[in-house]
Amino acid sequence: MQRTLIALGPVKIIGFCLAITLFELLTYMASDMIMPAMLSVVKEFEADARHVPNAFNLYLIGGVCLQWLIGPLSDRYGRRRLLLIGCALFALASSAAIATRSIEAFNVLRLIQGMGLGFVVAVSYPALQEVFREADAVRLMALLGNVALLSPLLAPLLGSLLLEWLSWRQLFLGLGFAAALAWLLLLMCMPETIGVLRNDGKHLPPTPLSFRQILRRYAALLGNRTFLCASLALGFMSLPLIAWIGLAPLLLMQWQGLSAVEYGLWQIPVFAAVIVGNLLLDRLLPTHALPRLIGLALWPYCLGLLALLCSMLTDESVPMLVAALAMYAVGLGMSNAVLYRIALFASEDSKGLVSAMIGMLSIAVMGAGGWLIATLGGGTSLKLFSLWAAFGGLLCLPPLQRVLRT
Questions:
Q1: pTM here?
Q2: For residue 200, what pLDDT is reported?
């Protein structure tokens, strides 16, 4: 039985899924693998330690800054062409890091690297939704997300180990070579979903590119309360995890005095918990409606954030903080793919533009929230981090209430 909406052979289905997974993995790897070396980077460039979280936030901003255009371009010229361009841009930016001589040049390349994340969100995610049927698309996003989540789970530890033999510049060069491999896989296996007659008889024609019309369509999306609330909730729900990724090098290595390897080991429980949440989602998906799944996910999510607040009562306890983050992360893993699906289909507009707007709103919340948490001292003590990360995560509840009522 044909399980895809576009005719594909089994080899190309596997190749397409692997290519998207590898590209997504690399966009996260480029962020997380370098984090154990960030103290060395700022020392080499004689820069302030504030550039440690700034480099991560710039990466997120890069993921936002072009999405408004990437989505409509993929609606007009096709998903395949745009994703190939994005993958090539990411590979070039990663390889160019070997030649940087200042923190300013390094930050610019981080911004350009982050644009690769924008292509993943605005192009590859809609392509998956358009190739596979609903249940399979949600399941694939969750299961493929597990593979992508191996990056933040293993990348800090892997980066710490590789830095024993390689420089941070060589790490970036390796990411560039891996991105070139992903580009080749996309070239050989990715189908075009725009302008193609699908198995269900539907046809997704190219959408004319008019900037005035694009602005009107974005404005209409902002007026769609279900879409807006789901997109903002996505950002707030991920904020504690994003803040942890950006500030953990300062919290664990600079202030707690842990080694780079110990820092990497403390990342494993948090990101393993996200994978557990995704696996629970896969088991519950066949028997539960999407809003019901979010309701179930809120139990570990909220309990984890409350435990994070309780960790403030202890004397800077890393184990308790990580345990609270792990509980929260189970709820995040159970809800993320479901909430994305709800946001994507809250509007009848073309999915490239809708996905771009989801990415812009959610990543803007994560980037601005991460910067604000760092500014308020979240990188100076475990107690301040716990306070602001928990507060930021709980801000998802008002928009989620609106989503669940529709």
A1: 0.76
A2: 62
pLDDT below 50 — which residues of the chain? 1-2
Is there a contact between 392 and 376 (Cβ–Cβ < 8 Å)?
A: no
Residues 342, 120: Cα–Cα separation, whole Å:
18
Q: Give the number of other Cβ atoms within 10 Å of residue 390's Cβ.
A: 24
Phi, psi of 203 (to 5 degrees): -135, 125
d(CA 362, CA 56) in angstroms, rounded, equals: 16
Give the CA dihedral 364, 367, 368, 372, nearest 10 degrees: 160
The string over 312-351, giving b where at least 16 C-beta atoms fall within 10 Å of a residue's C-beta and e elsewhere, is: beeeebbebbbbbbbbbbbbbbbbbbbbbbbbbbbbebbb
4 forms beta bridges with 132
Tell me, which fold does domain 10-198+209-405 have in CATH? Growth Hormone; Chain: A; (1.20.1250)
Concatenating the DSSP letter of every residue in 203-230 gives: B-PPPP--HHHHHHHHHHHHT-HHHHHH
Distance CA 81, CA 67 (A): 15
Per-residue model confidence (pLDDT) at position 1: 35
Contact 157, 268 (CB under 8 A): yes
Q: Please give the pLDDT value at position 2.
A: 46
